[in-house]
Amino acid sequence: MSGKLWTRVSLVVLLILIAAYVLYPSIKHFNLTDSEKKVLIEEGKLEALEKKIIHPGLDLQGGMHVVLEVDLEKLLKSRVRQGGLDDKITNLIESSIKDATENDTEFFSGFKRLANASDIRLALYFPSYEKGPNDDVVAALEKDAKDAVDRAEEIIRNRVDQFGVSEPNIQRQGEWRVIVELAGVTNQAQARSLIQATALLEFVLVREDSQLLQDVINRIDKAWVEMDAEKASMTGSDAAVAGETSAGEEVSITKMDTTVDEVSSLQQLLGEEGSDSLNVQGAGDINRPFSSLISVGSNVIWIPKKNFRLIQRYLEKPEFKEAIPSDSRLTWGSEARDIQGDGQEYYALYLLKNEAELTGDVVTDAKEAMGGFSGAEFVVHVTMNGEGAKKWAEITAANIDKRVAIVLDDRVQMAPVIRSKISDGRTQIEGLDDITEAKHMAIVLRAGALPAPMQIEEERSVGASLGADSVRQGTNAAMVGFILVVIFMAFYYRGSGLIADFALVLNLLFTMAILAGLGATLTLPGIAGLILTVGMSVDANVLIFERIREEIHKGKTVRAAIEAGYGKAITTILDANITTILAALVLWQFGTGTVKGFATVLFWGILSSMVTAIFITRTIYNIMTERHTLTKLSI
């Protein structure tokens, strides 16, 4: 064997070994039993193995399909100048949303039309955009909204990538919607929360004035009584409160004389926590309906879990929002807690300053870990940039022995007491249930806050049974097509057909190995691309074999016929395959998720077929004709 031929053979063998090595994890993972998977999970090796395999797509293994739409109402209200959100602009925004929904029209054109019809000068409400006519203000708002959707799409993509979903499909639908498809997701509630959370992180000082808190409670009591009296006068009922709760709303009135500690702290703020002495206010007093349903501690209101929905619904009404001072806000705790150890859970309601001292814009990194006061709690370490660290140092230095609430998406995660100045811009969030929750929060903080709130317009789940049917049908179609091609080639071209079949097997091996190496996702359209690749691969061999036949009929020797056949067929093969590759690239660039799956498999399959049909089959023929022992070609 000549040195040149030995090099070709060595290269073919090396390619086969590399492909087998890359594809082995996928084969191993496919054959894993549930018990073997459990062992790998316990050893922490399953995740590493899954990074090296071909992942089934949403249509093959199930998952979730979510359509998110930007909440234009909340977006515009958030853009109104501080303190400028009055009934006039609120009604305009809500009417525009209603008009666009009912008449299926473009929102901003309707917003401008209604503003002009109501003689509202938008520049008074949106001074940071334009100070000119309404046309300019609306144009600037629309540009900002579209930019917000673009940034939201990128932030969602970053979150999903860190969440660990392989090859997610995230794409725009129209101007205001984003489609998210996550294959193989089992915890759909967590994934939904991850992609929908606005991730607005704030550090807000707690109002320390207990008299102010009591005044707020009294105002809410008064507003509640007045509203119920108005309802009673309209319905002729003196039992307004009972009527409000009669529709299945269970109310619990609990008296507590216990002292509980706020079980939260910040890194470097360790020290004795302040205590909250809980005392029920006016229990059973119909003239103090709000006080009857709560317990008050120092600087915090405790709401029994059974009363949470009722109180939350009431506090969202405009009448109750007016009871809160303009420089303050009431903010719920993140979750109910058993504060007394008696099995009864309570939600915390904090009175905070209206303006945040610091926001999540200064966060540069967030990592989940074990830590906290005991060293065995689940925490998230937060690192700030230089500007944030400087401001955080000023805030902590000026508010020693005061509480600062860490608020994420308008929910207080914790409200620790500041014990000392923090100058390095590092802190931590504690009180998390498990490492999964800590990881979830860290991902959201790292990826950044959504520039606009997103609401779920549509959500579908693809079940395992549908995935299994798809896998079986797609696999059967591929196998039948492959077997028919192999039989045809062996029957029609005889010995040369077997060489083509060997090259075809290698083509599939190389293509699957490339997909596994890229960590790609195989979908039903991808399987279709694989079947098309089989046809294209055989087509190249057919062109070569027919050219060789022509040369043999001219009386040439076998070796000369093979040389001439490959030489004359190569131009046609390159032309056909390169045009197909270009088409695959166009589909990949401009297609949606399923089309991209087809284009990816087709692109790599065609490249692989060119190697196997031209290089590998030629190498086999060269081995057979090396010593001139082949005098007759079976073709």
Mean pLDDT: 76
CATH architecture of the largest domain: 2-Layer Sandwich
Name of the top-level CATH class of the largest domain: Alpha Beta
User: Strand content of the residues, in percent?
Assistant: 15-25%
Number of strands: 20
Q: Kindly give the count of domains.
A: 3
Termini Cα gap: 24 Å
Q: Could you describe the largest sheet, including whether it forms a barrel?
A: 5 strands, antiparallel
What share of the residues lie within helices? 40-55%
Radius of gyration, in angstroms, nearest whole number: 34 Å
Q: Given the helix and strand composition, which structural class is it?
A: alpha+beta
Query: What is the fold named in CATH at topology level of the largest domain?
Result: Gyrase A, domain 2
Strand order, sheet with most strands: 8-9-10-12-11
Poorly predicted runs are 237-284
What would the principal axes of the Cα set say about the shape? elongated
- Provide a count of the helices: 19
Overview of the structural elements:
With 635 residues, this protein is of the alpha+beta class. It has three domains: 3-58 and 463-625, Multidrug efflux transporter AcrB transmembrane domain (Multidrug efflux transporter AcrB transmembrane fold, Up-down Bundle), CATH 1.20.1640; 63-198 and 457-462, Alpha-Beta Plaits, CATH 3.30.70.3400; 202-449, Gyrase A, domain 2. It has 19 helices and 20 strands. The chain has helices at residues 3-30, 34-43, 46-50, 58-61, 72-79, 87-103, 107-117, 134-163, 188-196, 210-235, 240-245, 308-315, 318-321, 386-398, 435-447, 464-518, 524-553, 558-590, 593-625; strands spanning 55-56, 63-70, 169-173, 177-183, 201-205, 259-261, 275-277, 279-280, 295-297, 300-304, 328-332, 346-353, 358-359, 363-371, 377-384, 404-408, 411-414, 426-432, 454-462, 521-522. Strands 8-9-10-12-11 form a five-stranded antiparallel β-sheet, with no helix packed on it. Strands 3-4-2-19 form a four-stranded antiparallel β-sheet. A four-stranded antiparallel β-sheet has the order 13-5-16-17. Helix 7 runs antiparallel to helix 8. It is elongated, with a radius of gyration of 34 Å. Mean pLDDT is 76; it is low at 237-284.
